[in-house]
TrEMBL record:
PROSITE patterns: PPIC_PPIASE_1, PPIC_PPIASE_2
Stored Gene3D superfamilies: 3.10.50.40
Protein name as it appears in the record: Parvulin-like PPIase
InterPro entries: PPIase_dom_sf (IPR046357), PPIase_PpiC (IPR000297), PPIase_PpiC_CS (IPR023058), PrsA_foldase (IPR050245), Trigger_fact/SurA_dom_sf (IPR027304)
EC number per UniProt: 5.2.1.8
Single GO MF descriptor: peptidyl-prolyl cis-trans isomerase activity
Record's keyword terms, sorted: Isomerase, Rotamase, Signal
Domain PpiC: 130-221
UniProt lineage: Bacteria, Pseudomonadati, Pseudomonadota, Alphaproteobacteria, Rhodobacterales
Signal peptide bounds: 1-21
Family classification: Belongs to the PpiC/parvulin rotamase family.
PANTHER family with a match to the protein in the record: PEPTIDYL-PROLYL CIS-TRANS ISOMERASE HP_0175-RELATED, PEPTIDYLPROLYL ISOMERASE
């Protein structure tokens, strides 16, 4: 009985050993002298689109391995006829991947509640309230046409009707010139500045020129913009914190690097066939 138990234990261990020994360096296929490893397959799977996760494991394995075998075979052909462009492109691709991987690791952190609160207060400062405006406009191509509209409005003409008939901004014109609620910075500077100086219910006494033409503006209302609740903007703030920290780290690493620029290189050299493509 004791011998039987020992034998069973030995057999179980012997079966498990090959599985335990399989790691990222395990070779699962060879194409001539090119090895395809378990690590290559794992990296490929991590880069697959989410919908491919629905494919059964065995089927996905076969699809991936077949792709890797084809890729290895064609890569050998490409390597045998490497051009200067190929060499340069491979260097750039490797550099881009490594840089992206480093950035991904830098961004892999959770901001503290204090950092999120500070970002919220910076984005929505209590001592600098933002005003929103509700305005309509009629956009004309010439100053003369805009002045004519202003005179008609002074004579009692309906703003919405004139917007529908005359405005070259057909999108708002169909709605009587309605632009909805907006903040000053969302409009071109000339328009935003003019609106900020107007009184509620007033119409611009002079046409306002911008890159789009000549505006006749009617300010319906204004209000102080209520900041969103922290919970509603928490995720965008977290992403912003990550972006800011990554950017700061990139700047720090770049400044610490020894950089030597070769002076006197003619930029127009890039317009020439530096990589010998024309001879291919």
């Amino acid at each position: 009985m004791l011998l039987r138990t020992a034998l069973a234990t030995f057999l179980a261990s012997a079966i498990a050993l090959p599985l335990a020994a399989q790691d990222a360096d395990t070779v699962i296929a060879k194409v001539n002298d090119t090895e395809i490893t378990l690590g290559h397959m794992a990296a490929m799977k991590l880069g697959l689109p989410p919908e491919m996760a629905q494919i059964p494991s065995a089927e996905l394995w076969d699809l991936m391995l077949d792709q890797m075998i084809r890729q290895a075979a064609m890569a050998e052909q490409g390597e045998a006829t490497m051009t200067p462009r190929d060499e340069a492109a491979l260097t750039i691709d490797r550099r881009a991947y490594l840089a992206g991987a480093a950035i991904e690791r830098l961004a892999d952190f959770e901001p503290t509640d204090e950092e999120i609160q500070a970002a919220y207060e910076k984005a929505f400062p209590a001592d600098a309230p933002v005003t929103e405006y509700d305005a309509d406009h009629i956009l004309l191509q010439t100053e003369e046409a805009a002045k004519a509209v202003i005179e008609e409005l002074k004579g009692g003409a309906d703003f919405a009707k004139l917007a529908e008939e005359r405005s070259v901004d057909t999108a708002s014109g169909l709605n009587g010139g309605d632009l909805g609620w907006f903040t000053r910075d969302r409009m071109v500077a000339e328009f935003g500045d003019a609106v900020a100086e107007m009184e509620k219910g007033s119409v611009s006494s002079e046409p306002v020129q911008s890159q789009f033409g000549w505006h006749v503006i009617k300010l319906n209302d204004s209000r102080v913009q209520e900041p969103p609740a922290l919970a509603d903007v928490r995720e965008p703030l977290i992403q912003q914190i990550r972006r800011d920290k990554v950017e700061a780290e990139i700047e720090k690493i770049t400044k610490a690097a020894k950089i030597e620029r070769t002076e006197g290189i003619d930029p127009t050299l890039l317009d020439r066939d530096i990589l010998g493509q024309d001879s291919n």
